[in-house]
Specification:
Layout lengths: L3 E3 L14 H10 L4 E4 L3 H6 L4 H11 L3 E4 L1
Parallel strand pairs: 1-2, 2-3
Helix pairs in contact: 1-3
Length: about 70
Amino acid sequence: TRLLYETIQFSPFLCDREPDLASQFEAAAAAGYDGVGIDVNLDALAARGTSLDDIVRALAASGLPCVELQ
C-alpha cells in the first residue's frame, strides 16, 4: 500500500495563511508517507515570497516525490 499526503487541508484557496509546505513535507516523510499531492496556487505563494524553486528544494529535502498537483 502506498500512502499519499495531500496538502489540500492547508490550501491557499481555502485559507488566508501561508501553507508551510516544507514543514508539511517533512512531517509526511516522518509519518511514512510515500509521496505528496500539492494543492498549490503559485501566484498566492509568490505573493508571500515562496517560489517554485523553494517548493522543489523542500520536496528534495524531504525525500518525497510530488505525484499530483492540484
